[in-house]
Amino acid sequence: MSRRIVGYDVARAAAIFGMMIINFWLVLARDYRGKGMVASFLALLMGRAAATFVMLAGIGVSLL
Fold first, then answer.
1. What is the reported pLDDT for 35?
2. In whole angstroms, what separates CA 37 from the centre of its chain?
3. Helix-then-strand count for the chain, H and E
4. Using only C-alpha atoms, what is the Rg of the chain?
5. First and final CA of the chain: distance in angstroms?
6. Given this model, what pLDDT does residue 64 score?
């Protein structure tokens, strides 16, 4: 019986959700870049969501 690591699953879900937000922002909100607090928050997420997902994928492979 395999045991799941809940924290790992939550972190992976957050990374995927972050990547979805960034991709929608890049495609749909081109006119709003650089304006306001939302744009500043999304600029912080850019790159970090993908890096977090790749890191978590590596951890998942090592746990196999």
1. 66
2. 19
3. 3, 0
4. 15
5. 13
6. 80
How far, in whole angstroms, is CA 1 from its chain's centroid?
Answer: 29
- How far apart CA 46 and CA 21 sit, in angstroms, is 9
Residues lower than pLDDT 50 in the chain = none
Tokens representing 7? 């924290």
Share of the chain above pLDDT 70, in %: 86
- Model-level pTM? 0.68
Q: Which helix (H) or strand (E) holds 48?
A: helix 48-63
Whether 32 contacts 39, CB under 8 Å:
yes
DSSP, collapsed to helix, strand or coil, labels residue 46 as: coil
**Residue 29 DSSP code:** -
